[in-house]
Design goal:
EC number: 2.6.1.-
Strand order of the largest sheet: 2-8-7-6-5-3-4
Low-confidence stretches: none
Shape: globular
Number of domains: 2
Number of strands: 13
Enzyme class: transferase
CATH architecture of the largest domain: 3-Layer(aba) Sandwich
GO molecular function: pyridoxal phosphate binding; transaminase activity
Protein name: Aminotransferase
Family: Belongs to the class-I pyridoxal-phosphate-dependent aminotransferase family.
Oligomer: single chain
CATH topology of the largest domain: Aspartate Aminotransferase, domain 2
Structural class: alpha/beta
């Protein structure tokens, strides 16, 4: 191996494995552990969607699909975005991708040249940084913790003033992983005003768009369509994470370039999954509503329980995460806090430092878990906190 040690893509050396999955795997060996770690719905894929997939196999829908996607799916995706979010995309402005992850990768590969900088509001989903680096770009982090995790125009303007024309793109994510925070239409419009007319791409990760609680989902593409890649899919809205079906939307000029990257990377998304996703979008457009109602109950239960223990939480209004600031009288190293909690009381959260600057002193927990497990986890967390405070006293 020494012969090849220095022959790898040097950008790969800049990234590591997922801190989220690494920690999840590390605590999985703890007997009886309750894991509130991964962002995966605990609901089953709706029966009518599963049946569509089964029928696709029986009907021998097992050959390649067209590179952009099956025509029926592209039409369904276009109609879904129109009906739900008043966004207009023609069928040649949509690509079916292998999950939202490939949609993100396709967008970044389409636009990045070596040394290009990408603005990334923090805390962030760690994959953003990794994908920027592996594609030769440079992430520029913007810490939003001081503003309850809402990005402001002033934050963007400051970054642009510092980095100038080297900024190629910005990644936005609302509702946000890991905070669950959602912006308002006014917030989105103000951000759009700062970026409009500048040679800056916008990559908007909206995979949680159907899991918004107290207000409608707002897309930056409503105000800045001509510069924006929109990422969506059925993983979270229809509990289809394993089907690996994402969607990438963009104006035709941008999509003409992106489809070439997509084709050379994967050829096409899985035909069977595309058939199932078509069923999900056409006949299951509101399948997320009962899930959303259950998530709200879980969110409120955890919020109340953790707030009573002294955690500071910006109450999330989307996705299925709580991002909680560790009480000041307890261990502030988020990794150590989470590891101690897992080992002593068999409850697993994700350390906040896995989500970039602004994440230290925080923990993220996913409430995509049964209420029974959530109640047990909160009981165990209280026991852990009470014990730690007794030790500290």
């Amino acid at each position: 191996m020494t012969l090849l040690a220095n022959r790898f893509n040097q950008n790969v050396h800049k990234i590591g494995t997922s801190a989220i999955r690494d920690f999840d795997q590390a605590v999985s060996i703890i007997e009886g552990v309750i894991k509130l770690t991964l962002g995966e719905p605990d609901f089953n894929t709706p029966d009518h969607v599963k049946e569509a997939g089964i029928q696709a196999i029986k009907n021998n829908r097992t050959t390649y699909a067209p590179t952009p996607g099956l025509p029926d799916l592209l039409q369904a995706a276009s109609q879904f975005m129109q009906d739900k979010y008043d966004l207009n995309y023609a069928t040649d402005e949509v690509i079916a991708t292998i999950g939202a992850t490939e949609a993100l990768s396709t967008a970044l590969q389409t636009i990045l040249n070596p040394g290009d900088k990408v603005l990334v509001p923090n805390p962030m989903f760690s994959l953003y940084e990794s994908m920027i680096l592996v594609n030769g770009g440079e992430p520029v982090h913007i810490n939003t913790a001081s503003n309850d995790f809402i990005l402001t125009p002033e934050m963007i303007e400051a970054a642009l003033a510092e980095h100038g024309e080297s900024i190629k793109a910005i990644i936005l994510n609302y509702p946000t992983n890991p905070t669950g925070v959602m912006w308002t239409a006014e917030d989105a419009q103000k951000i759009a005003e700062v970026l409009k007319g500048k040679p800056i791409f916008v990559i908007s990760d909206e995979i949680y768009s159907e899991l918004v609680f107290e207000q409608p989902h707002v897309s930056i593409a409503s105000y800045l369509r001509e510069q924006t890649f929109v990422i969506n899919g059925v993983s979270k809205s229809h509990s289809m994470t394993g089907w690996r079906l994402g969607l990438l939307f963009a104006p035709r000029e941008m999509m003409n370039e992106a489809v070439k990257v997509h084709q050379n990377m994967v050829t096409c998304a899985t035909t069977i999954s595309q058939v199932a996703a078509t069923e999900a979008l056409v006949n299951g457009a509101d399948d997320a509503i009962p899930m959303r109602e259950e998530y709200i109950k879980r969110r409120d239960y955890i919020y109340d329980a953790m707030t009573a223990l002294g955690f500071k939480i910006v109450k999330p209004n989307g996705a299925f995460y709580i991002f909680a600031e560790i009480p000041s009288d307890l261990e502030q190293d988020s990794f150590k806090f989470c590891l101690d909690l897992a080992k002593s009381n068999a409850v697993a959260f994700i350390p906040g430092n896995a989500f970039g600057i602004g994440g230290e002193n925080f923990v993220r927990l996913s409430y995509a878990a049964s209420m029974d497990n959530i109640e047990k986890a909160m009981d165990r967390l209280k026991q852990f906190i009470d014990n730690q405070r007794q030790i500290n006293d």
